[in-house]
Every structure is written in structure tokens, then in C-alpha cells.
## 1
Amino acid sequence: MKIIKGSITAPQGFLAQGVEAAIKKEDKKDLTIIYSNHKCAAAGVFTTNKVRAACIDINRSHLEDGRAQAIVANSGNANACTGQQGWKDTLSMARLTAEYLNISPDDVLVASTGVIGHAMPMRRVEKGIRDAAANLSEHGGENAARAIMTTDLVSKEIAVEIEIGGRPVRIGAIAKGSGMIHPNMATMLCFITTDADISSPCLEEMLRYSCDRSFNMISVDRDTSTNDMVLLLANGLAGNRQIKNCQGEDYQVFREALDFVSISLAKMVTRDGEGATRLVEVEVINAENYDAARTIARSITSSNLTKAAIFGEDANWGRILAAAGYSGADFDPQQVDIYLGSEKMAENGMGLIFNEDLARQELQKDPVVIKVDMKSGPFKATAWGCDLSYEYVRINAAYRT
Amino acid sequence: MKIIKGSITAPQGFLAQGVEAAIKKEDKKDLTIIYSNHKCAAAGVFTTNKVRAACIDINRSHLEDGRAQAIVANSGNANACTGQQGWKDTLSMARLTAEYLNISPDDVLVASTGVIGHAMPMRRVEKGIRDAAANLSEHGGENAARAIMTTDLVSKEIAVEIEIGGRPVRIGAIAKGSGMIHPNMATMLCFITTDADISSPCLEEMLRYSCDRSFNMISVDRDTSTNDMVLLLANGLAGNRQIKNCQGEDYQVFREALDFVSISLAKMVTRDGEGATRLVEVEVINAENYDAARTIARSITSSNLTKAAIFGEDANWGRILAAAGYSGADFDPQQVDIYLGSEKMAENGMGLIFNEDLARQELQKDPVVIKVDMKSGPFKATAWGCDLSYEYVRINAAYRT
């Protein structure tokens, strides 16, 4: 596998564009279209929040046949908690995009991110859709990535190339996450394209697996958004023999590349977490089962006390152990060793005498790497989070208007 | 029921003292003894963290017979993650206290709060126990409350008097919570005394009920401690007819008073939460069942985004609804109304046009009162939290040493 230039337009047959539609107050891009000139096998994973934007339910229904051809996404307005009108506006976004692209509305997926509870400015949105559709380009990936940003400080893109049955296959992706210009709730969007030929059932299974090990393992503030989604479009133009056996070797090769793409973007989102000064990687090893490893890793990356201690460069291993303890996973605390980088801080659940200067140096690194050895089985899991800084409070205390 | 002066020494037969044993670095009280001159029916509720201090398990065993006569508590050292030595030291604290008070070690309960993973300075602890035991007094409640404080800014005490079968019965209590001088993890301790005559099974049942509606409904930072405990001692000196029927009228009267005491202290602990500038009260009403009401109320008080918005006086009802949505409770978002004080912000899951100035005034109040009307049943629950401020980050980023 090699990392290549570009993002969602790196795979064959994909065009994209991001434009200014004046949905945001500032003069910034805020409307994206991603389009494949061939119909794609498509899969999506969506927020589990009971309070969901209309686009979540509409996308689920559009994905029932496992096919799609375009994505339209806007930033600056989440179109959530907007009732019947919000539902109608989301359907209009799909219909308008379909008209300009001359495809079926059922083959358009819709994503929105931004302030909650405000009506969509549909006249501007329509103008934006027309503008983006008219300027779709093989070089539009970067604009597309910019036009889905909200309080993100950097845009997030990646593309890789692998070989399947002797044919080069590409995967491209963009994501946004962890804040809004009108802070409301952290919304995470990720769009992945590939020219691989894959059956819909295989696509869905591997996207779910990959998300569970990437986007579902990151946390900035434990607040699950109303609009989170990851979409994956596969148009088959690479001409590989179709991947339709979820146990086969081709499936493995592709999924490993997909995992790499998902984890890379998940880490970019977390590193760009609101107010974050460092990425934190927590690896739980030798656990009795995978669920326990996962639960403990996530609990540690989500602990406010641990996050604040990391911001303060305080090697406070007691908070790490306590966060494991209240995670809900069953384990024996008196078996647990804790490492900060290469420094061992605790053994068998008890503190060791460690070098405070070396520990502080580990806490100044980016990422900070914490390893928790359960010494009770063969399973492991990794989670990513960030530190909790004054800046997080400032960003989220800011008034909406 | 009337509120009376004093705290744990207000009920008949209880003596207490808090002294300086030099366990803390500063010249501050750090060792407390609470003693009843009659053996008590006793009950306790303890942290659910898998990583527990030895005192938690030792108290459970000492409470097996439902009886106790004294509590010894220290601040400045949590004696958690200290292995075999920590276990021995906890047993020594019970034994030494028992010797000086001439009672059985099994009738002594032990509590510790402070830094984790450090050995107890047992010579100092013994001197403190001797000193406190020699100076037990009816007026020692305030010193006792001070000697369990860590980063608490104020001490927390309350006492009430009710009448049961024509006899005055008193309940007194002290608590500490929400920070440490060596910040490590928020430890919550609460000791409650009463001269009521109550059977052990009734005492345990009502303490569990009361804690579920008070201490288990507060959150400062979602981090569950290794040392949390609530202890209740009832020595029977009020001479009321014994409460031994958990359905009876006397039980109800006493439990209501106990609930008042528990909720009052729980609110004091939350208001004194690390860095908190305001108490936040979230009432979920008209829910389909009690568990849903409770889960939603707790999810809202625990949301970092909601807490930061309150600190910033931002009437960001979307975050409140989103926190309800990811709580795990099942409900229909399109039924939900949200009030901030007397201002209705959202109806049927959609935002209303509201007066931003009035909303901001509600957010400047202490407590901030949020009401969530589920409009789907007869159940309700109240949870308490606090805002998330720069000061929280500062306190918890500070270096241990």
C-alpha cells in the first residue's frame, strides 16, 4: 500500500467541488458535491443519537438498494431539530443535486453540519448546488474538503493505492470534525471514495468493521452529534475482479487499506479536537476479550481528569487506572501495568517510583502514548483522544450569536 | 421537619472531633473521628469502581452484621492502589481507633481521601487518632467536617429534626467532595448520624433509595472515584418506637427527612465542584419510566458541551436535546419541550423564537434550572451538575507535586 496525492478525486471516475453558498456568515466555502460518473456500490454508518437530523434517515432509505452516485454536503447549518421543514429541505437538496447531475434523487446522499435548530437558507443552497455541479473537477477534492469544515483548523484528506489481482485500486477520503463556527455540537463527517469493484454487502460489512476501529474509537468530548456519518462510494472503475467474498484475500487487502484510511482520518479529527494541544493514543493490550480492551481504552481517552492532567503534563497514572475501573469492563486491577511512552508508571495496580522528568517528557510528545497491560489474555484495542485545555472551554462557552 | 443547628453531633449520643495529624502538607485538619456512645444500626453505600481502596472492602465486611459504633476518616491520602500495605494500614486504623475508644475493631468504619498510590504515614495517623479520640465532643462536628476536606472551598454540614410517634428524632450529616489538594480524582465522602431507632435492614434499604436520588444524581466530571462512600449510623437514643417495617408511616417520615439531608449535601458538593461557578439543576418530567427520566437528566448534567455553554451563558438548547438523545434512553425527540427557568426554548423537539436577554438572565442565576418535558408518561427525576470553567482545567492540570 502506498500513500498518494489527492483525496476523494484520486480514485478513477470521481469528481468533486466545494463552493461558497453564503450559508456561513464568513466568506468561506460551505457546499460540497462529490460525484462519480459511474453508479457506485455504497454504504454508510450513522450517528446513534436518538435526536437525528433528517439527512440521517433519508440517507438510510437512499442506501436500501446499496447504490448511490453523489453526495451533497453543506456546512454552517446542521438542519437538525427543524421538524417537517427540515425533512422537506433535505429532500430538496437531494432532488436539486439529482437534477443538475441528471441522476436519480435516490442516488444522492445528503450531509449537513453546523448550527442546530435553524431553517436552511434554501435559495442560497440551490445556488450553491448549481454552482458546485457546474464546476465538478478531478482537482476539486481540496475545495470539497474545505467546504465541509466548521471550526476545524485544518482540512483532512488522504488517498492510498493498493493492488488487487494485479490491478491498481485507489481509496480517497475527506473528513471534518470537532467543532463549529457556531459551536453547537461536534459533528463528524467522513466521505470515502474508491474505484474498487466491491459488492454492496461486502462494502457495508467492511465499513462497519473499519468504523468500529477508527471513528468509533475517538473522543473529543463524549458528546455524540446529531449528524455524524461516514459514507463510502465504490464505482468499480479500477477493473479488479469484483470483491464479493467477505472471507477472501482481496477483501482482506482492501479492508486493511480502508482501515488505514479511516484510522488516519480519525486521528486527524481528534488531533484537531476543539482546544486540543496533543493527540493521546491509548493502547490496551493482553485483555481477556476485545470488548473489555475497547471499553477500557475509550474510558481512559474520555476521562476529563486524565485529559486535564495530560494538558498539565502531570503523570497522574492513578486517574488512568481509575478511568479503567469505572469503564464497566470486568478485570482484576491488581494485574494491571501502566506505561507512559517507554516509562513504566505502575505495576500490578500499584505505583512504581519513576523518573518525573522522563515522564514529563513523554507527556510533552505529540502523540502522548499510554499503554495499559491487562496481563490476562490475547486481545487488544487502541483509542484516540486529546487533552482538555482552557481553549476547549473558551470555544464552547462562546455565545452562538 | 425543621432544619436545626449543628451536624453529625446534633443527634443524641454522638461525639466527634477533627484534628491536625500532618497527613496533609499544609497546616490543616486531616483526621476525623465520629463516635456514638451506643452501638448503632449502620449502613453504607460504596463506589462501584473496580479499582477500590482497601477501606471500601473492609467497611463492607465490618457492616455485614449491620452494626457499627465509630468512623475514622483521614484526608490528604486516599490509601488506594497501595497493595497489601494499604490493606494492613486500613486495618490498623480501625484497630487503633477501637483501642482508644474501647470498642471492637469490627465496629469501626474507615474512610480515606486524597492522593492515590502513596503509603499512609501511619505514625502520624496513630497520633491523630489518639488526639481526636481524646478530644471527642458534642461540639466537634464542625472540626470533623473540616478535617475531611481536600480542595473543597467550604465545609458541608446539615442537621434536621422530625417527629416520629411523638418523639423528636434528629439526623445530622457532613460531606466532602469534588477535589483534592493533590488533585487526583474527585472523592466523595458523606457521614450521616441519627438518634432514631431503626432496624438494620430498613436502614440499608432507605440509604440505598436516598443515595440513588441524591449522590447518585450528581456529576462534576463523570469521573467515578476509588474511595466514594456514604455511611449512616443510627444509635436509637431518640427512644422512638423502632422503625422496622419498610412500608410503614414512620419509615416514610424518616426517609423523607433522610432524602432532604442527602439531597442538600449532594447539592452542596456539586455547587463546590472543581471550578464550578454555578449549580445546574436538570428536571426531567413526564417520562415514560423512572429509569429514562434519570438517564436523561444525568446525561444532560454530564455533557461537557452543555456545561461549557452554561459557563458562557449561552442558551444552547440543541446541546441539551442532543445529550438527551445519546443518553441511551428510548424516547421520541419530537415530543420534547425544553425550558430554561421560565423561558420555553424548544417545543416538540424544535426551537422556538425566544428572548435571548431573558434566557441569558436565567443562565446567570445560581442554580440554573433546566426542565425537560418528555410529555409521554408520569415519571420524573432530578439531577444536579455544575458548569465547566477554565478553573476546572487549571485545578486538574496542576502538577501533583
## 2
Amino acid sequence: MAVYTEVTDEELAAFVGAYDIGAVLSLKGIAEGVENSNYLMHTQAGFYILTLYEKRVEEADLPFFLGLMEHLSTRGITCPQPVKNRAGAALGRLAGRPAVIVTFLDGMWVRRPDAGQCAMVGEALGKLHLAGADFAGRRANSLSVQGWPPLLHAVEARADEITQGLGDLIKQELAHLEGVWPQGLPEGVIHADLFPDNVFFLSGKLSGLIDFYFACTDAFAYDLAICLNAWCFEADASFNITKGMALLDGYERVRALRDEEIAALPTLARGAALRFLLTRTVDWLNRAPGALVKPKDPMEYVKKLRFHQRVEGARDYGLNR
Amino acid sequence: MAVYTEVTDEELAAFVGAYDIGAVLSLKGIAEGVENSNYLMHTQAGFYILTLYEKRVEEADLPFFLGLMEHLSTRGITCPQPVKNRAGAALGRLAGRPAVIVTFLDGMWVRRPDAGQCAMVGEALGKLHLAGADFAGRRANSLSVQGWPPLLHAVEARADEITQGLGDLIKQELAHLEGVWPQGLPEGVIHADLFPDNVFFLSGKLSGLIDFYFACTDAFAYDLAICLNAWCFEADASFNITKGMALLDGYERVRALRDEEIAALPTLARGAALRFLLTRTVDWLNRAPGALVKPKDPMEYVKKLRFHQRVEGARDYGLNR
């Protein structure tokens, strides 16, 4: 949950005055999104989300994210749309931070996804990968294998405060993955953070995708590996192969995986687990007393990583071939 | 900011299914209200606030609060209205907690109120006191002078962790107030927590009042004393007599203060400062590391209390007679 930045009435009125959406009638900080400050804003023209980008988002990346959301929408993917001001700009500044207004998207995220929802997410991910194919923007994935050593360095000395041996686990896993990380897989725009809270459902159907602020150019199968981690484990960290099967099957209904992607899946899944283990460990060790955001538990990803380490092939995730 | 309780999709659908407001389209936790979990809910019928009452609110008091909101609305006070389900009940249970759906109220609260807004708040407070006159419900003020000794007891041993001498300051102030606390002042329904974040403005006018969960039966002038504390001090804890004058003047345009209320005002203002100093001290000393709610600074009320201790009469607050 997140509201890091308070906005004064005067600043807000000046900012919104540059748009054709009427006066602000209501502004409520919403408890979603860990990276930015998000407000639900009611204006005379309707409901919107006002986002202020906090330090974790690179300002130089914002045109990529906003352009991607616009592009995907024209290709049939339902996602929030940046609203442009009268000068034609989607990106502005408010309270000293980059800020945008995006359209409000109905929908609810599921706390406990079932296999049917996993199938729909797989399908949506496949569609996202195809829809991004002709997007001109490129952005390197700063949280892929090259981005992990600095994170290891940041947590190495204190990781064992979380659990005995965590530092060694991360170090050894990183060394392994650096040696075997796949190259040359089919790539394009990936979401890179398609967790349940970023996927909306309405009346039993997937209704939209949100939060493109980790999107980047990387291997499609890595995005799928992130989703296997995010959607197919139970609360006790056991892998639900029925959900895995549903997710992979949903994906392949849209985009068939190549042999080299299938072969790489266990390695990519280990990498995805390590990536979230690393960032959660950083957040956990740096949590401030009294902070507004409750950091997510790194131990969840220790367990997931250990599962992937024992996997022998994509069949163990439910792939039927 | 507050979302203490997560609601599952199934529970929510079952709860909302008992109302005539259509299906839920969106539910976002909002970062407002320290005592309860609040969600902004979009249904097929419109926007609502869903509130889950957490431990600080006594379930037995809820019919008083909800009945009061309904009563005030019929008397011309704009405030959220409890929505009744098909069985005619405003109060239900969700995720193991008492829960209500209230109407969504547009409006923005002001971070830095000016004298004009103080005048409008004074006037609204006077109207609230008159509008509550024929409300049948009664609720004792559990946070008035009789309720302070248990709070002192709870913080006594550790208050000096906040500032040297705080324990003694509170103890001596409480002893003083117990001896001089006024009796027999005009009383009725008071809001008892009319801080800036509970007052909405739109287009320069006061548009509504929210959060009646401290409302109770007590002296009207005590409510005014709470507002003097909440609205008329600057960020550096200096008292702005222009704002005090505006607040008192606004109030008296609606309801004239009696001589005994005027005489009691400095004592009531000290009591109001002590009441918020006590609860903030409790919250501060009991803040959990990583908690979602950032406790408010007790020192603000130490400074306000010290101001009131030096006040000689209601003239020092800006009363022109």
C-alpha cells in the first residue's frame, strides 16, 4: 500500500487545470502499488488514477512505460491509458515528482487464483507478447541476471538475519545461473511483474492488466517463468501442477513455445525466483520502523527457489509435451 | 492510512449480494481513517465506501453512529449515508468484522486551512449541534476526563521516552483538570473529532463532514475546543488568533455561546489538548515496527497544551466579547 507523497490543494488544482477533465471533486490515496504514490481521483469528467513516481522508477523510463500502455491498448490489450493534457503531454510534474493521470480500470484482483484464472492469465500473457511485437520502444531488463550481483552485494552481509544460510543460498544460485543463463531465446516486450494484484477480473473473465512499471525487453519465456512463480504455488509454497498446466496451456493457445524455450524454463523459473528473492531481501533488510509499506516475505521465494532447484524439466511445471 | 483487513472475493460477493447495488466492479483500499479499514467500492450502481470496523470501535456503538448519520442528513447536514441491504439492515458482517456500506461523498480536505475555512468549520459545527438536538441516541464520551486516568496509567512508565518530563506534564495536567472540569454546560451530540481530514470542501465551500466514530453526548463547547486545537494552530504550533476568531465567529453565527461556556473554554481547550496528547502518546509508544499506520506526533499536542496553560480567557482565542 502506498502513498508516499502528499499533494497540496494548490499544486493539484494547478496540475489538473492543464487537462480537459474538469475540476477535482475527490482525491483518495489508495493502498495499492508498492513503488509509487497512487490516488483515486474523481473529477467532473469521471474517475482516474493519479500516479506520482517515487525514487524506484527511473524518470527516463517513463516514456517507454506510457508509450507501451498506449500501444498495447491499440492492439486490444485492456490496460490503463495515460490521459494527455491540453499541450499533448501525458507526463507532468506534481509535488516535485513525475506524475501521470491514467484512466480508471474496473476489475478485482484475485487473492487465491484458481486453475481457470491461471489459464486466463497464461492466455493474456501470450496476447501481451504478440501485441508488443511491433512496439518500437526498447528497455533493458535491469533486474535480470546482470542486475543481480549488485543486489547480492547489498544484502550479503545481513541476509542470514532472515534465515541461516540465505547469503550462501543466494550466492551459489547466482553463480549457477550466471553459468547457464539462456541466450538467444525469442524476446520482445515482457510485463516482468504479472502478479495477481496486477491482473483484474470481472464476472469470471480477465478484464485488464495494470502496472507496467517493470516492463522491458527480454525473453518471453522469462515472463512465463515469473508467472509460474507468481500464480501456481499454494500458500504453503507447494507447486500446484494443475495450475501450472493451465497457465502453460493458456499461453500456448496464443503463442506456441519453441523447444529451446521449453528446455530453458526450469532455469528461467530459478532466475525469476532469485530475482524476487533478491528484491524482497533488500526490502526486508531495509524496512523502516513505522514504514507505511509492509515488505513482502523473502522466505516465500526461498521455498519457491528450492522447488525449482529440484525440477528436472518443463514437464514438472505441467507442460504436456 | 488504513487497510487492516483483507477481504476475499467470495466473502465480498456474498456480502454485497444482500444489497440492491449490483455487482462489485472494483474495490480499492484507501489510505484514510486510522481506526477502520476503508475501501472505495465501485458497483454497478455507483461508488461507495465500504468500512470494516476494527477493534477500536465498540460494536455496540455502531447503531448510534449510523443512526446519527441518518438523522443529521434529514436535518440538512451533508455526511455519508449508510446503505441498507434488502433486509433493511445497515450493519452487516464481513471478514469477521462489523461492516457497513456508506454513500461516497465528493470533496477534498484541506492540508493547510485558512481563516475562511475555519469560519466555515465553525458554522458547520454550530449547525451540527443544532441538527443533533432531536436525535434520540445517547453515548457517553469515553475519551473525556473520566477516560483519561486509564490512558495515563497505560503510558506513565514510558512517556518520558518521547520527551523528558512528559509523564509528569500529563499527570499534573490531569490532576488540574479533574479539579476544575466544568459541569452542567449545554450538551448534546458532538462530533468530537472534527479535524481537517474529516471536513470536505468543494469549490471553496464546505461540502460535507465525515467520520462520526467518536461522536458522543457531551458539552457543545468541548467540541468547539477540539476544533480550536485542530484548526487554529500553525505547523510550528503557534496559535493563529485570526483563525480562532473566524472559527468562534462562524460558530456563533449559528449558535451563541453562553457565558459559562465562554468562561470554560480555556479549560476545555486544555482538556481537548490532553485528550489527543494521551491517545497519541499511547499510539506512539505502541507503534509496531513495519506498521501500516504512521502514528501522529504527540509533541504537537505538548506544544498546544502549553499554549492553553498560559491562556487567560476566551479572548486569547479570538472571542470578541
